[in-house]
Amino acid sequence: MNKDFYKMRFDGIQTLRGIAAVMVVLEHIRFLACGAFGVDIFFCISGFMIMFTTHNSTKYFFRKRLLRIVPFYYLMTLGTFGLLLLFPSMFEQTQASLPALIKSLLFIPFDMGGGILQPIMRIGWTVNCEMFFYLLFWIAFHISHKYRGIICCAFLSVCVALGAFMSGGHTWTGESSTASPWLAPLYFYGNPIMLEFALGILCYYIAKGIYTFLLKHPARSPKLRGTTLLLCALLLIVCLIHSTSNINILGYRRVLYWGLPAVLLVLCFFAIGLFLKMPSLSIRLGDISFSLYLIHYYPIMLLDRKVFDFSTLRSQSVIGAVIGTALVILLAYISWYLIEKKFTGWLRKKFCSSY
Questions:
Q1: Of 301, 294, 335, nearest in space to 320 by CA
Q2: E-assigned strands of 181-284?
Q3: Which residues lie across from 118 on neighbouring strands?
Q4: What is the pLDDT of residues 228-248, one digit of tens each?
Q5: Measured distance CA(100)–CA(94) in Å, rounded
Q6: What is the rounded distance in angstroms from the CA atom of residue 203 to the CA atom of residue 209?
Q7: Which residues does residue 111 pair with via DSSP β-bridges, in sequence order?
Q8: Which residues 6+ apart lie within 8 Å of 24 measured at CB?
Q9: pTM of the full predicted structure?
Q10: What is the rounded CA–CA span in Å between residue 20 and residue 119?
Q11: Closest by alpha carbon to 105, among 81, 134, 139, 137?
C-alpha cells in the first residue's frame, strides 16, 4: 500500500463506477427496472473524487470538468434534438423546441410538462446536477481551499433548503408541482438528491481516515478481509435491487434509502481496492461508465420497441436484455476511445497545458 494517500489509484471505486453504470442500463430494461440507485452511487463517487483530485491543485478545475463533460453531452443532446425532428413519435413528452435545446446546452432545467424538470435528453438530468455541483465546488475552493468540502456541503444544503421553501416542501417530499420558468432551476437544483454529493465529500474524509489507520495498523489476511468486504458489498447491492420495487424513493427518502447505502458501497469498494487486485475488465468498465450512461438509453429503447419487447419476463426479453447490454457496452467502449480518450485528450493538451 502506497504511503502517500494522494498517489493512490482507486481501482475499487472505478470498479464500483462500472457497476453503477450497468445498474442504470438494467433500470431501463423494463422487465428488470432495478438499477436507478446507480445514479446515487455516481453522485457519491463524484463528491469523493472531486475532493481527492483538488487536494494538491485546483488549476484549470472548471476547464477540466467542462472538457470532461461537455463534448459528449453536447453530441448526445444535439443527436436527441435531431431524433426529435426526424422521429417525434419516438418521444412521449419531449418536443423539438429551439428554446429547450438552448436551455439543455446551458444546463438550465425546464418543465417538460407535468412538473418534470429535465433537459431534452432526459437522462442528461444527472449531468446537469454534476455541472451545478462543480460550480458550487469551484466557488467553495475560491473561498477557502482547506475548507472547500465543508463550504460546498453548506452550499448544497442551502440550495436544498431554498428549493423546499420556495416549493412549499414539494421538492423535499418528492411531490410533483409545477414551477414557473424562473423557479424551475431552483426546484431542480434544490432536489434533496444534491445532498448525495455532500455524502461523497464525507466519504473522502472517512476514506482518508481509514487509509491512515491501515498505515499504522496493517491488516492481517488482507485477501480474506477484501473478500469479506466484497461479499458484503454485493449483498448490499442485492438489497438495493430488491428495494427498487418496494420503497418510495422520492425526495428526501432517496437520500436515506439509496444515498446512505451508496456511502457504504463507496467506502467498501475503496477498502476492497486496498486489499484485492481489481480485474482489468472491471476497471475498464469504470473507465467507460460516462459513455455507457449517456449512450445506452436509445439503443435499449429501440430494441424494446422494435425487436424484443422488454415489458414482461420471457425468454425472448431475457435474450434481448443480454444482447442489449452487450451492445451498449461495445458502443460505450467505442465512444470512450474516440471521444473521451482521443478527442477530449487532445482538448486537454490544447487547453490545459499542465494537465
A1: 301
A2: none
A3: 110
A4: 999 999 999 999 998 887 666
A5: 9
A6: 10
A7: 117
A8: 35, 36, 38, 39, 123, 293, 296
A9: 0.94
A10: 22
A11: 81
